[in-house]
Amino acid sequence: MYTHSLSASVCVCVNVINAYFFPLGCRYVSKTATKTQVEFDYNGPSMKTSVPGPRSQELTKQLGDIQNVGAVNFFCNYEESRGNYLVDVDGNRMLDLYTQISSIPIGYNHPALLKLMTNPNNLSTFVNRPALGILPPENFPDKLTESLLSVAPSGMTRVQTMACGSCSNENAFKSMFIWYKNKERGHSTPSDEDLRTSVINQAPGCPDLSILSFMGSFHGRTMGCLATTHSKAIHKLDVPTFDWPIAPFPRLQYPLEEFSRENAQEESRCLEEVEDLIVKWRQKGKPVAGIVVEPIQAEGGDNHASPDFFRSLRNICRKHGCAFHVDEVQTGGGTTGKFWAHEHWGVDDPADIVSFSKKLLTGGYFQKDELQPDKAYRIFNTWMGDPAKNLFLAEVLNVIRRENLLEEVTRSGKALLNGLYELQAQYSGILSRARGQGTFCAIDICDDETRNRILLKTRDKGVILGGCGDRSIRFRPALIFKEYHAHIFLNIFNDVLAQLK
Amino acid sequence: MYTHSLSASVCVCVNVINAYFFPLGCRYVSKTATKTQVEFDYNGPSMKTSVPGPRSQELTKQLGDIQNVGAVNFFCNYEESRGNYLVDVDGNRMLDLYTQISSIPIGYNHPALLKLMTNPNNLSTFVNRPALGILPPENFPDKLTESLLSVAPSGMTRVQTMACGSCSNENAFKSMFIWYKNKERGHSTPSDEDLRTSVINQAPGCPDLSILSFMGSFHGRTMGCLATTHSKAIHKLDVPTFDWPIAPFPRLQYPLEEFSRENAQEESRCLEEVEDLIVKWRQKGKPVAGIVVEPIQAEGGDNHASPDFFRSLRNICRKHGCAFHVDEVQTGGGTTGKFWAHEHWGVDDPADIVSFSKKLLTGGYFQKDELQPDKAYRIFNTWMGDPAKNLFLAEVLNVIRRENLLEEVTRSGKALLNGLYELQAQYSGILSRARGQGTFCAIDICDDETRNRILLKTRDKGVILGGCGDRSIRFRPALIFKEYHAHIFLNIFNDVLAQLK
């Protein structure tokens, strides 16, 4: 049992659970945190049926007459969900370490967001969705300054909102193509031939440029993004695509401190391949306008690389005149313990474009001045985002600051990762490669079938997890996930592993 | 003056304006309509400055430090906007015949939508945005049935929501590619080679399929959609694209009744070209998986074609085994006097896929059973739409039914188009080709420069219009636009034209 074998953690774990139910003796929860938690979080999982329960199954059948339901896990009662706990339609209450594919920043029904909804001054923002590109609301510049620009990555003062992650990356790619062509022209005035041919899908108006991406990456599912996505076949099968270069992403060996030489070599190999591909694609007549990369490949299996790797990649871009696009759709918003994962690289000029969505509630991207298109209507669509989502984001950022949530994430992430290390030592036949930054953690399971069995068993015991890659489990709790939540999870996870052994 | 030259309309126009201010004597406004109008609409334009006024100019400068503002018209006070009237930050109140690029269905701050916001049962839907594909809310099947399925096109019982118009079309294209490949295989099981090659952007996993589109079309700006968009160079310039076939769209001559033979010939020519392109692209090894078409090319210049044309196009798809995708992003939602523009074709089986967004408030598409992908995660993303938008849509549909808005649109559209015919007769050197269905109307101006001058002058007199194509003006009022609004506009338009002459 977990409490017997993890001697160092025994007391912590038991204490914390006790502390939770008897807050007076609590060592791990600050007073501030306790206050918020007591306000709107539940005190633990509570299971009434196996999941999906009968009501979820009934609804899945009903929805199956309307759309493909192959991916539906269960149906939710969002009204009853609170904080870190998702409640389903069969009355099961589960600790949520997946948070709607990493897209709920501060838990369910956070009081600050509910309050915002009842402010009559905000009604009009919800009811009248503007075409932001032509008719923005009066408070739009202030709202952008207050929300997105307050977390702008180093060196970036420009931001464009979009409706979702895919649209953000699509438009970021377009900005890189436009920037590259203007650079090539030496000015921003297209020729008549450029204009004439672009309308009929021909060069030179539609040039044969490319974006370099990495094996295992995920950048979205619309056709431009999909050409740079290489995590799973099912995403791409049967869809026409572009002949764009794909570089290997480092496959690090763990524990990192034991394999530093091997890992450095592996990263060098990948970087050399990047440069080779840039040269090769230029020779093929399809120059690389930009490189797109995730700071941690998420969907592809939580693949990390060192700050050195990313710094070198940034330099390769400078050397070859490509734009550098860091896709923080999954890593952004505080989950790694810093607001942006690229902050861990420790550089002043991390990227030319940084895209976001998910936890930021609105999609979009930051960019350096020179990446902003020179003319109107080059980057454009009807809505260009949604001010109602900016409103929520501004409040989420207030909560993050007020409750020091980045520190909390660092603390609870440490508890989570240390717990995973210990379980991995104990169940070495099942678990390996525990890794993470903040609460953005993952662990590998011996095989795909066991991974899926663990996910279901853990869920039936009241914890929601997600898979990624071939056989990894990814942890994506909200930013209000505390140390004691980590211990609730670790206890349950231990039970599942013990029964599996 | 307008009232002198349009003898038949004089009384109507003057009466209606009078009737508006003195509702008791009103002939044109039904009691139901009056009630709603009195509740939340204004009684006419009111201009204080030229547009953009000083405050708008100041804010444009401020926003210019954050993003490209080349397309910004002016800044809005959405709180003060009501019904058909958009109020700007300088206190100007304008009759809005453009409605945020045709995306406001029932006017600004409609009481029914405001009421929905204050219902505490709805709060959770706004605050907790789910990953709909995996964890839908309990009421999701019912909400889809109540809203989108209640307006499903003939022959379609399946619907997939998406965040915006571009994402809707991108995923509709993917569904057509998947359907086409499975048809070609004779089953839905990909080979190992299909799976292996798809991840690295190679055939056969990523096949060389194509979508046939029309010159002048607009289907969105993400890279798949953009490959089928051919309305303006600025949308496509410098962005890599696919070698997909582009057919001519009929260029009808007006008045239609005088050119019936010529127009029928023109449509035949285009249809022949469609068939030739399908054969040619099959021979090139890039078979046409689907054809995408707008019922009225909107952004491209409000280009209409006859019901016969679309029926023949549908038959060509059947004959050649291509899917038929009708893009109703701009035409859908009631603005043509029917809920879908394709209903004017009078066929039971109008399409395989119908996409929507804008006035429907959520993006998405309806599809026939056989177009639904066979497996989970083939059509997928984090949010898959937004239940908060479905909530608004359900209420919009209630209002449309309760207030018989489709009949109103037919009536006010007739007043608008008849007024345009008369003005066109009077100002034949400036205006031509007045055309429309419902309030989805347009008119051509002698040249681009005059068009833009008219747009600005009309705006300074309190009416917002939009341009489309090379030199057209498009009319896109909300569904609550009444006959007397048409006359307010016609009066002002006449003044502008008279001064221009």
TrEMBL record, chains A, B:
Catalytic activity: (S)-3-amino-2-methylpropanoate + 2-oxoglutarate = 2-methyl-3-oxopropanoate + L-glutamate; 4-aminobutanoate + 2-oxoglutarate = succinate semialdehyde + L-glutamate
Name this protein carries in UniProt: 4-aminobutyrate aminotransferase, mitochondrial
Cofactor(s) needed for function: pyridoxal 5'-phosphate
Sorted UniProt keywords: Aminotransferase, Neurotransmitter degradation, Pyridoxal phosphate, Transferase
CDD domains the record matches: OAT_like (cd00610)
GO molecular-function term, one example from the UniProt record: (S)-3-amino-2-methylpropionate transaminase activity
Membrane-traversing stretches: none
Function: Catalyzes the conversion of gamma-aminobutyrate and L-beta-aminoisobutyrate to succinate semialdehyde and methylmalonate semialdehyde, respectively. Can also convert delta-aminovalerate and beta-alanine.
Domain of life: Eukaryota
UniProt similarity note: Belongs to the class-III pyridoxal-phosphate-dependent aminotransferase family.
EC number(s) on file: 2.6.1.19, 2.6.1.22
Gene Ontology cellular component list: mitochondrion
Originating organism: Monopterus albus (Swamp eel)
Quaternary structure (record): Homodimer; disulfide-linked.
InterPro entries: 4NH2But_aminotransferase_euk (IPR004631), Aminotrans_3 (IPR005814), PyrdxlP-dep_Trfase (IPR015424), PyrdxlP-dep_Trfase_major (IPR015421), PyrdxlP-dep_Trfase_small (IPR015422)
Primary enzyme class: transferase
GO biological process: gamma-aminobutyric acid catabolic process
Cited PANTHER family: 4-AMINOBUTYRATE AMINOTRANSFERASE, MITOCHONDRIAL, AMINOTRANSFERASE
